[in-house]
Structure formats: structure tokens, C-alpha cells
């Protein structure tokens, strides 16, 4: 399975894209929910997997103080360079490194908390390896909070009902990331799951388009033969008219899931839910 990326702008300008998401009310809302579940305390050690330009890790460093440790990792040199620049500018104690989330370069039981925001949908076949690695570096009783969008739950209204369901079906087939999170964490041996979601909607097309380019997704649906060239033309015309008449609506959902590493190292969960004694 290949990584499922639904926004080409995220690949073209990842730093700009992540900054844009952070500035939206929807982005602020789901992050507030995630940070509440993380329950980070002074003195904690925390790992931000897929830290991007480092804003969360820098925030974590302020919370844990000098008694604690905040580390951000990402596979992209550009992200880590930007994260270090921002940390230096703010005098932050946050640490950053280029590390693959599926092969963490940390000792067992190194962190009280792990945070992974919109990471697993990019990992493809490495998802389960990344969960296993996070579970390994978490201390017994430590928690992971993971966030993922669920494009399969997109809502679109442009006053057109024939082609829109086909486009939504195409997007949904590529985007069940959010709803897959709970079972992904369970299969990784994490327990005591807390599941929350944050839903948002907007009628401002330009704002939505900056984060979710619907016209591009519709063209991808055409390329995948989910819709015809004629259906694409009809849909784009309806989209243009809806925007011009202020009749555009879009909704989306973000899943936020917290899982805990079992406190007893001698017992671990395996995917069928049974318990094996070590």
C-alpha cells in the first residue's frame, strides 16, 4: 500500500501547508483536543513523531521545562532545518533530528508521551512498524496521542447530486485514515483507548481550497476513471457556479486517539487480543 496523500500542495510546500493548517480554526480546535488528551506535565519526556517545522515540540519543551525533554523527529531535512531555526530563534530547549518513525533511534522506555499528528497516513506499509517502535520507546503507562484526517467522511454541497457522490466515493477509497487509527493502536498493543473527533465546516471556497484542492481531487477521480471527462466538466462548472453564488459547503472530520502502553512489561497484547506472558 502506497502512502495516501490527498493534497499536492502539502508535497510542494510542506512547511507552508502545515503553517496554513495551524492557522485555521479547525486546525486549532483539533490540536487543542489532542493536547488535552496528551496530558503533558512538567518533567515529562515527550517525542513528536513527524514534527514538521517544530511548533508542537517547541510548545512541549515549554511545558515540560528543563527537568523534562522534548524531541521532534521527521524524515525531511527541510522540516528539521526549519524546526531548529524556529527553536533557536525562540531559545527553546526542544531537540530535533532526522529519524524514520518506523526505526526510532531511541532506547526502550525513553518517553512518557508520544505525539503523532497526521503521520500514519503517509507511512503506507510502515504504519504497523511505526506503532511498534512508538510502543517500544514509550515507558510502561506512557501514552501516544495520534491524529489523522478522515477524507472518507468529507461533505460537499455544490448543488449537484449525480457526480459528487462518485467523487466522494473515490476520495473515500483513499482516505479512511482517521477511522483506522483505533484498530491500528490496538494492534500495536496499546490499551485504554480514548477516541475523540473534531468536525469542521466552511462555506469559504478559497479557505477550503488552500488546504483541500477539490478541483484537483476531481481531476484525479477522472484520471482513475471514477468519473468521465464529461462528468468532470459538469462538476467543475457546478463548483464554479456554487462559489460565485455563495452556495458552497464543505465539511471534514479529524480523529484524535489516545492509547496507553500496558504497565506490566511481562505481558503484552498481540493482534488477536490475547495476552502472552513473557
Report what the structure shows:
This protein has 278 residues and is an alpha/beta fold. The protein is built from eleven helices and ten strands. It has helices spanning 8-12, 14-23, 25-38, 55-64, 77-90, 127-137, 164-174, 177-187, 205-211, 214-223, 229-244, and strands at 45-49, 69-74, 95-98, 111-117, 138-149, 155-157, 191-202, 249-260, 267-269, 275-277. The strands form two sheets. Strands 1, 2, 3, 4, 5, 6, 7 and 8 form an eight-stranded mixed sheet that branches. α10 (214-223) runs antiparallel to α11 (229-244). The longest helix is centred in the last third of the chain and has 16 residues, at 229-244. The model is unreliable at 1-5, 266-270 and 272-278 (pLDDT under 50).
Write a brief caption for the model:
43% of the residues lie in helices and 24% in strands. The chain is α/β, with parallel strands linked by helices and 278 residues long. The two termini are 32 Å apart.
Amino acid at each position: 500500500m502506497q502512502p495516501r496523500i490527498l493534497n499536492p500542495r502539502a508535497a510542494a510546500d510542506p512547511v507552508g501547508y502545515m503553517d496554513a493548517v495551524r492557522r485555521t480554526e479547525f486546525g486549532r480546535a483539533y490540536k487543542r483536543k489532542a493536547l488535552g488528551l496528551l496530558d503533558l506535565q512538567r518533567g515529562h519526556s515527550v517525542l513528536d513523531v513527524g514534527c514538521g517545522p517544530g511548533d508542537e515540540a517547541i510548545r512541549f519543551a515549554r511545558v515540560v521545562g528543563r527537568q523534562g525533554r522534548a524531541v521532534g523527529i521527521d524524515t525531511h531535512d527541510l522540516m528539521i532545518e526549519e524546526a531548529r531555526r524556529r527553536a533557536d530563534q525562540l531559545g527553546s530547549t526542544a531537540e530535533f533530528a532526522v529519524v524514520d518513525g518506523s526505526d526510532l533511534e531511541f532506547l526502550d522506555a525513553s518517553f512518557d508521551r508520544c505525539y503523532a499528528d497526521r503521520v500514519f497516513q503517509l507511512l503506507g506499509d510502515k504504519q504497523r512498524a511505526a506503532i511498534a517502535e512508538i510502543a517500544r520507546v514509550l515507558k510502561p503507562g506512557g501514552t501516544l496521542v495520534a491524529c489523522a484526517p478522515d477524507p472518507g467522511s468529507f461533505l460537499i454541497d455544490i448543488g449537484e447530486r449525480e457526480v459528487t457522490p462518485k467523487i466522494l466515493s473515490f476520495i473515500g477509497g483513499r482516505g479512511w485514515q482517521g477511522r483506522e487509527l483505533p484498530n491500528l493502536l490496538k494492534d500495536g498493543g496499546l490499551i485504554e483507548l480514548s477516541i475523540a473527533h473534531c468536525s469542521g465546516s466552511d462555506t469559504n471556497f478559497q479557505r477550503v481550497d488552500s488546504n483541500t484542492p477539490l478541483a484537483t481531487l476531481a481531476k484525479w477521480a477522472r484520471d482513475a476513471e471514477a468519473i468521465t471527462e464529461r462528468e468532470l466538466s459538469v462538476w467543475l462548472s457546478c463548483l464554479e457556479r456554487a462559489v460565485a453564488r455563495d452556495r458552497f459547503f464543505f465539511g471534514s472530520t479529524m480523529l484524535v486517539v489516545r492509547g496507553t502502553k500496558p504497565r506490566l512489561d511481562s505481558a503484552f497484547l498481540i493482534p488477536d487480543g490475547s495476552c502472552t506472558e513473557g
